[in-house]
Design goal:
Chain A: This is Phosphate-binding protein. The complex is a heterodimer of chains A (278) and B (292). Chain A has helices at residues 3-8, 46-59, 72-80, 95-98, 127-135, 161-170, 186-195, 224-229, 248-258, 260-268; strands spanning 12-13, 35-41, 63-70, 86-89, 102-116, 124-125, 152-156, 181-183, 199-204, 216-217, 235-243, 272-273. Chain A has 278 residues and is an alpha/beta fold. The chains are: A alpha/beta (278), B mainly alpha (292).
């Protein structure tokens, strides 16, 4: 049924890798536990979940944690149906989803930024320029100070939390040009942009590396620090959602994400940890 | 005598088991169809005004899938017609060529191609075909109807070729000698005798290829760009119905975007069923006389 889930396909069951890791205090909560914990949803969350899962399973091999992708919509749907223990979303629950009896735990802040090919000479784009590019009014890089080259638009599908943040906060709801190419995941976006000098797209700040370039936005560099201070405005929270009040292994996992060691995993994945459970 | 009775008894028992299995699997299949139709029919009937429009802009409240219907049809029609012509060429080569070793290689290659997962074609095109279109030929971003068509041809070519082969090889063995005796050249035999004799079956083969092209998801999703527009040329991005379903499946349940999936699924199902029945009918009506 979930073709998209297959495509984003990050279903990974981890074998224990670091069985000789140091026994941290945070991990002692898992000492007496066993069983399986299933996680699915937002793709931006996966690096954090993976790091946490590796530590926990290394500490106690009788715990199995599976992590799947699929996008924010899938995460919310599956946790509401009871198919997974934790459903991740890169946006707050929508009004329609509020009635599903879910508890949301925001644990990190993530920015969404425009990305272009590293060879593109453009270094700064204003909000107005980005809006006009995505509306299809500006069609050549020359008009924003680049080479004489056609602009190729890339966007995400409607299920994407990244898209909804980008569309609301950056495009201010402006209508997307019809000829924009649609890619189904953060990874596919990065592949498309890194291969095409004329391309423009957007992704989670945590995904930006040397493969793509993020031009400054109104002269602000979309970095972790700028997201944390609020200087860079296109940010969102990353959530874990559970059906009802979590217990047992699910509860312990959420507590672990909020622990100092969890914060380290969040930072190492390129996001800013949130301390308090919200 | 006793042992004979025993086998007979065992046979009826086996037959009973087989019949039961056939009935059960048939019923399962039927129920799948019924469920699909049951779920999609209400959407299909009540939301026609919302769904059968050109514009797809969910943020603005437009949920039309006609651009996707057009994308699917153009994708399938173009790729099937090219694949069909190539398949006829390959088929004639296989029958007429004196280099049997080349034919053997070609045929095993085609059979091998039939088993390649589409995602592999997609990946190869992503790193070979698209940069060629984009950087060397300067044809937009490369994600286009053209790119998807190129790879779909590879996908459906083995289907059509193997079917053509199955139809024409026995005919060739039957008629080649007689035609030669009447003074036909091999080429004439192929064009004047073999092809006209099984034209209906050839149509069936083409329809099967067409069906495969309509149903494929991975190649259009990866290569066609998924833009919800009516293309103005083959180098424009399009979105197919299958890719549309794959992209939208994860949105919230019950919304209008979600409902459009049922309409898309229903259209695909009806299209496939119709083509299947048509090709069955054509092939069944003109069943070839097999050589004794």
């Amino acid at each position: 049924m979930m073709l998209k889930t297959c495509f984003v396909c990050l279903i990974t069951t981890f074998t224990l890798l670091t069985s000789n890791s140091l026994i941290a205090d945070e991990l002692s909560a898992f000492d007496e536990m066993s069983g399986q914990l299933n996680i699915a949803g937002g793709t931006a969350h996966i690096p954090v979940m993976k790091k946490a899962a590796r530590q926990i399973m290394g500490h106690n091999p009788s715990i199995r944690i599976t992590i799947a992708g699929g996008g924010s919509g899938v995460g919310v749907q599956q946790v509401a149906k009871g198919l997974v223990n934790i459903g991740n979303s890169g946006r707050a629950l929508k009004n329609k989803e509020m009635g599903l009896g879910l508890n949301s735990y925001a644990f990190a802040i993530d920015g969404v930024a425009v990305i272009i090919h590293p060879d593109n000479r453009v270094d700064d784009l204003s909000q107005q320029q980005i809006i006009e590019i995505y509306q299809g009014k500006i069609t050549n890089w020359q008009e924003v100070g680049g080479q004489d080259r056609q602009i190729h638009l890339f966007s995400r599908d409607e299920a994407s939390g990244t898209r909804s943040v980008f569309s609301k906060r950056l495009l201010k709801g402006a209508q997307l040009a019809e000829n924009a190419n649609i890619v189904p995941s953060n990874g596919a976006m990065k592949t498309a942009i890194s291969q095409d000098v004329g391309a423009i797209g957007y992704s989670s700040v945590g995904y930006i590396d040397e493969m793509v370039k993020a031009p400054t936005y109104n002269q602000i560099k979309p970095s972790q620090a700028a997201c944390a201070s609020g200087e860079y405005p296109v940010v969102r929270r990353l959530y874990m959602n559970t059906k009802g009040v979590p217990s047992g292994l699910t509860q312990a996992f959420i507590d672990y994400i909020y622990s100092p060691e969890g914060a380290k995993h969040i930072q190492a994945s390129g996001y800013i940890p949130l301390d308090a459970k919200l | 005598m006793q042992s004979f009775n025993y086998t007979l008894k065992q046979n009826t028992w086996m037959q009973g088991l087989l019949v039961t299995l056939v009935v059960v699997s048939g019923l399962l299949l039927l129920s799948v169809f019924c469920f699909l139709i049951w779920f999609s029919l209400p959407v299909f009937l009540t939301e026609t005004s919302a769904v059968f429009k050109l514009k797809w802009q969910p943020e603005q409240g437009h949920f039309g899938i006609l651009a996707m219907v057009f994308g699917t049809l153009s994708l399938a029609l173009i790729s099937t017609s090219f694949a069909f012509v190539i398949a006829i060429g390959l088929n004639s080569f296989c029958l007429l060529s004196r280099r049997r070793w080349l034919v053997a290689i070609l045929q095993s290659l085609l059979k091998f191609m039939a088993g390649i997962p589409t995602v592999v074609y997609g990946l190869a095109a992503l790193f070979l075909l698209l940069p060629l279109l984009r950087n060397i030929l300067q044809l937009g971003s490369g994600y286009s109807l053209f790119a998807a068509v190129c790879m779909l041809i590879l996908l459906i070519l083995p289907v059509i070729c193997v079917m053509l082969d199955n139809i024409t090889t026995p005919l060739w063995q039957q008629h080649a000698l007689g035609a030669q005796a009447l003074g036909f050249s091999p080429e004439q035999t192929y064009l004047q005798i073999i092809l006209p004799h099984c034209k209906v079956n050839i149509c069936g083969a083409a329809l099967l290829g067409f069906n495969r092209a309509i149903g494929d998801t991975m190649l259009p999703l990866m290569l066609a760009g998924n833009a919800t527009q009516l293309p103005s040329g083959v180098f424009d991005a399009i979105r197919s119905l299958t890719a549309h379903i794959a992209l939208v499946i994860a949105t919230d349940q019950g919304g209008e975007a979600y409902n459009s999936l049922f309409a898309a699924g229903m259209l695909l199902l009806m299209c496939s069923a119709f083509i299947c029945l048509l090709s069955r009918y054509l092939v069944g009506r003109n069943r070839l006389v097999q050589p004794a």
